[in-house]
Design the sequence.
DNA sequence: AGAAGGATTTAGACTCGTCTAAAAACGTCC
DNA sequence: GGACGTTTTTAGACGAGTCTAAATCCTTCT
């Protein structure tokens, strides 16, 4: 009964998983935007996913993942992030390339290969961009995070993860040493545009507002 | 203009490539049988491949590969065999599994990854089953071969490659030490059924006719 | 409560890759 | 040179995944 899911179905499930939160159901429009497809396509995929009991679909009311749907999505996250780790650590490919490559590979990697990656890489906890890798049981650690842009002047923190989907942004991060594990401190905030002066590994670095919103550091978001 | 080919198109091109020979054009029926699809499907794919100038299609007369079509097929062979080598050598997966896995991966591996495999594995010359890997320019060495079953009593030879598509057969080969590089000598031939008594690395081993027809050794085929 | 505006679903079309069944062409054998 | 059996092509259908345009529903605002 858990026939193999098509790449398209997996991509929709993943998008739903990413956008899902306790308070808000995921709507047709959300997914259409996230995946760059039409709302009509999304409606028809919602129905197909519902047929397979991967989501609960309410007309005009969006979807929520079932347990099976969530498990599939988390499985895909695991495949994607382990693939990325493999590509950077073993094949030495640049971190701004691997997301795109993993986005195709993730659909073609059988469990044997994934588990070998995991072993060979010594059970990595995160992808190269700092995002946590679910374990084989689908468990994922909760981490308190806030964007670098939320830090007050004088505050210090450690980079946990960065937004991974824009290669240009990733190259910019790499140049400036903004990568997971690095210690940062906000030296100055430019109130008008929102630019930050940040000490990265001691070195003062100017960080644009968009970049600062795409870098996440440890700590609780303000209430 | 060289848009990315679909997995299906690649599979057809590969099948045509495998069956192509100087004297005989590849027919609809050949490919239908090779790929386990209907003749009707094959006809319609022939037309699509012809549209893309990957084959020359003659109604009721089969196809031949164009240069572009041959290049695509050889590229796929390179991806497949390097993927297999990676799976056995780096991930330590069994040689009877890797053909199946590579059959999916081959369609999802971008050039960067393939060239990293090639480097990391030290430019391997063959896949785990002994089949030669085309180089990045699509060059493939010609090798004179004959089936083990063609050896006369008393003859000696070295295994070059084995038929790779039947996992059961591969496990049988592995058990008996029949793998590329091994020296074999025919001690006795059983005329009725065609079974052979073969010395493999010195050890006398009974080899069934089907197996002996699937193991290829060095030497010219008789005229 | 009714109307406006926005989101969602439906309708209908298209491509790709597949199938079965029927029609057409081919090649061989008398 | 025609008849027959085989091969190939055509015709028509289907599912997956996508689109655009039109219809419908929902929400909110007056
Ligand atoms: Mn994907
Ligand atoms: Mn990542
Ligand atoms: Mn394949
Ligand atoms: Mn092989």
Sequence:
């Amino acid at each position: 009964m858990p026939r193999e899911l098509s790449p398209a179905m997996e991509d929709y499930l993943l998008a739903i998983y990413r956008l899902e939160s306790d308070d808000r159901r995921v709507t047709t429009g959300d997914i259409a935007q996230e995946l760059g497809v039409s709302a009509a396509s999304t409606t028809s995929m919602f129905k197909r996913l519902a047929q397979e009991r991967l989501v609960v679909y309410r007309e005009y009311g969006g979807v929520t993942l079932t347990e099976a749907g969530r498990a599939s999505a988390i499985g895909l996250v695991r495949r994607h992030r382990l693939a990325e780790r493999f590509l950077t650590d073993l094949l030495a490919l640049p971190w701004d390339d691997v997301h795109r490559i993993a986005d195709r590979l993730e659909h073609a990697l059988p469990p044997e290969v994934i588990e070998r990656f995991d072993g060979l890489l010594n059970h990595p906890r995160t992808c190269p961009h700092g995002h946590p890798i679910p374990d084989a049981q689908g468990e994922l650690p909760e981490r308190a995070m806030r964007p670098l842009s939320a830090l007050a002047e004088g505050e210090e923190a450690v980079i946990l993860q960065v937004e991974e989907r824009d290669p240009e942004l990733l190259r910019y991060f790499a140049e400036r040493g903004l990568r997971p594990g690095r210690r940062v401190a906000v030296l100055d905030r430019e109130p008008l545009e929102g630019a930050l002066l940040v000490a990265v590994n001691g070195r003062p670095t100017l960080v644009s507002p968009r970049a600062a919103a795409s870098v996440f550091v440890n700590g609780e978001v303000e209430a």
Notes: Chain B has a mean pLDDT of 94. The beta strands of chain B are 55-57, 63-65, 145-147, 156-162, 183-189, 196-200, 203-207, 215-218. Residues B 81, 84, 99, 127-129, 131, 164 surround manganese (II) ion (ligand 4) (CB under 6 Å).
